[in-house]
Amino acid sequence: MQYNIKDVFAPKLFHTLRHYSLGQLGQDALAGVIVGIVAIPLAIAFGISSGVGPTEGLITAIIAGLLISVFGGSKVQIGGPTGAFIVVIYGIIQQFGVSGLAIATIMAGILLILMGLAHLGSVIKFVPYPVIVGFTAGIALTIFSTQMNDFFGMGLENIPANFVDKWAYYAQHFHVNGWALGIGAFSLLICIFMPKLTKRVPGSLAAIVFATIAVWLLKDYAPESWGVSITTIGDQFALPNGIPAPSLPDMSIPEGETFFTMVQKLFPAAFTIAMLGAIESLLSAIVADGVIGDKHNSNTELIAQGIANVAVPFFGGIPATGAIARTMTNINNGGRTPVAGIIHAIVLMLVLLFLGSLVSMIPMACLAAVLIMVAYSMSGWKTIRGLIKHPNRDLWVLLITFFLTVIFDLTVAIEVGILLAMVLFLMRTNEQTHIRTLHKEIDPNEDTEVQYNLEHLTIPEGVEVYEIDGPYFFGIANRFDDIMTHVPGDKYPIRIIRMRKVPFVDSTAMHNLSMLIQRSHKEGMTIILSGVKEHVHKQLVKGGIEEQMNPKNICPNIHVALKRAQEILDQKK
């Protein structure tokens, strides 16, 4: 099959511009402006909570948002920093510094591009839902825990990154700044109740506007005796007056390390960023498809995410992916082409250029409240509650992934969660495959293959029929091998294996079948295969099974197989 780059990289922007209209431009412009305004507090909050700053969050939303819209495989996807990356980014910075984050982000971008070029877009969709819910809920709890310092106004520094150590540190140094807590609680109430008043104004935006005005009034007009003490963004970070010029990211290597050893150590983190980016962006694209009735190109989307993550470190940015909340805001306000995402990036750039002084006045407690609401939205508590009511294996996968995310880190959680889900899938598949043994006759009322023959099919004496119902892979192959081994060959010298309900075979099954045929030859037994599907038969031919046995002993159905068995019995007599 010839490899065609257009199959994996076909940006939706160039397709939609062929039939673009002024009417659609108006709708996209309105949606782009609204989603750009919505993205302002989130980009700032994600940047600060990740351990970098508000500038890095805004720059990421601008650069990544622009590139994902230009090169993406979805018409309405909005890209930028998201809450899922906060834990990973913070951990990388704690361990490897900002230079390590830049290397890991570029590596993740390259991985995403390679995944797209290798047609892995559709494979990512098969990550089990309990794993996604588990690590998303774990991220939500971790994000919540990181906001306690600013929400209560404790002003602590050098807070441990580990979840358990963090809460122990909070308990040891806990104190409350009443003004910060008041602003945080006020912002949280706005976030909760604004959606009940109107859907047009996002709660996070309203909270930031009202909280910033309140802090400005308190700082400028409240009596000194009140002792107003509220930390704002400007107190901790310096905002630039524009987008930094692209430059090589700081990739300084710590003393005693080489670039190669640094890459080796950062690869697990880069893999986690790539997996998170792929999963979140493709889930967002799938949800968007259902709303607008379109179909995204998953491989193109992965390549676009990769391009964005390779580019953002050159501007000082952090990892980015498709953001489902901003994507849905875009759709709900009329955005239907990537032009809306481009306009959203332009709006953010204008904010960074001309409204930096206003952004610096946003209180940190307000941003903490916004992120607490983000954590609540991410938690998926309704899904978890539903699974708890009906405990099953999926619940255990979810809980293990959740606790590994919280107690250890996201890399371990994703790896173990996917491994657990694969093991459980194999167990379920193994349980769905049944092996029947028939000795005397086959009842046509219980067998669709013989219904056209109303008489019972008699199994000759000395012949035993085994039917495999389901996939014939390593779990079943070993079980079937045990059954065949414990049956004496002198009692049943001919054994028919019915494979009409076997959709596929794996290498273990092929090996066990080969060994069974060899053992049967030595013991004077004959193996007959019945009802082998065409594609399974091709696998048997490739695996050399047909060479080990008489081709006449591979039969199209049970009638031919029983007839062949009788012929062999007659020859032996």
How would you portray this structure in words?
By secondary structure, this protein is of the alpha/beta class. It has two domains: 5-240 and 255-424, no CATH class; 434-572, 2-Layer Sandwich (Transcription Regulator spoIIAA), CATH 3.30.750. Helices cover 64% and strands 6% of the residues. It is built from 26 helices and nine strands. It has helices at residues 5-8, 12-16, 22-49, 54-71, 86-117, 121-124, 129-146, 148-151, 163-173, 178-197, 203-221, 233-236, 259-292, 298-311, 324-332, 338-354, 356-359, 364-378, 381-389, 393-407, 410-432, 474-485, 507-523, 534-542, 545-548, 558-572; strands spanning 79-80, 321-322, 434-438, 441-442, 457-458, 463-469, 494-501, 526-530, 554-555. The strands form three sheets. A five-stranded mixed beta sheet has the order 3-6-7-8-9. Strand 7 (494-501), helix 23 (507-523) and strand 8 (526-530) form a beta-alpha-beta unit. The chain is elongated, with a radius of gyration of 31 Å. 44% of the residues are buried.
Estimate nothing, just give the exact number of structural domains: 2
Helix content: 55-70%
Give Rg in angstroms: 31 Å
N/C terminus separation = 53 Å
The count of strands amounts to 9
Rounded average pLDDT = 86
Global outline:
elongated
Strand content: 5-15%
Number of helices: 26
Give me the side-by-side strand order of the main sheet.
Answer: 3-6-7-8-9
Structural class, by secondary structure, is alpha/beta
- Which stretches of 5+ consecutive residues score pLDDT under 50? none
The major beta sheet can be summarized as:
5 strands, mixed
